[in-house]
From TrEMBL:
<comment type="similarity">
    <text>In the N-terminal section; belongs to the PRA-CH family.</text>
</comment>
<keyword id="KW-0368">Histidine biosynthesis</keyword>
<feature type="binding site">
    <location>
        <position position="88"/>
    </location>
    <ligand>
        <name>Zn(2+)</name>
    </ligand>
</feature>
<comment type="pathway">
    <text>Amino-acid biosynthesis; L-histidine biosynthesis; L-histidine from 5-phospho-alpha-D-ribose 1-diphosphate: step 2/9.</text>
</comment>
<dbReference type="GO" id="GO:0008270">
    <property type="term" value="F:zinc ion binding"/>
</dbReference>
<dbReference type="Pfam" id="PF01502">
    <property type="entry name" value="PRA-CH"/>
</dbReference>
<comment type="subunit">
    <text>Homodimer.</text>
</comment>
<keyword id="KW-0963">Cytoplasm</keyword>
<keyword id="KW-0479">Metal-binding</keyword>
<dbReference type="GO" id="GO:0004636">
    <property type="term" value="F:phosphoribosyl-ATP diphosphatase activity"/>
</dbReference>
<keyword id="KW-0862">Zinc</keyword>
<dbReference type="InterPro" id="IPR026660">
    <property type="entry name" value="PRA-CH"/>
</dbReference>
<dbReference type="GO" id="GO:0005737">
    <property type="term" value="C:cytoplasm"/>
</dbReference>
<keyword id="KW-0460">Magnesium</keyword>
<comment type="function">
    <text>Catalyzes the hydrolysis of the adenine ring of phosphoribosyl-AMP.</text>
</comment>
<keyword id="KW-0028">Amino-acid biosynthesis</keyword>
<dbReference type="GO" id="GO:0004635">
    <property type="term" value="F:phosphoribosyl-AMP cyclohydrolase activity"/>
</dbReference>
Amino acid sequence: MSRVESDGCRETGLRLDPKWDAAGLVTAVVSDAVSGELLMVAHMNADALAATLATGEAHFWSRSRGELWHKGATSGHVQRIVEMRIDCDQDALWLKVEPAGPACHTGERSCFFRAVTSDGLVRG
């Protein structure tokens, strides 16, 4: 039996069944729903995913603080979910959001505000 046949529900089915990593997390890629700009990458555990689905706003698991994190709870820069997708293995999420401000804790619109070149990092 092929992998797809033996794991068809997760890989081709329509039932949400995230494949959590050893730490109980999935990667969440966040982009602007209108412009398509990549804003940030974070992680979700089951509680963060449930809170995101329940509220329509992005919630993540903070690996550094070891706690659930509602994006924008303190800054006001919430991310309203426009669409959420999961990849074929169900081990990564893509959140298309309407951001209420910068995504990056540095104040930059995107966490990806620097380009990597052979000479190092440049704003770009």
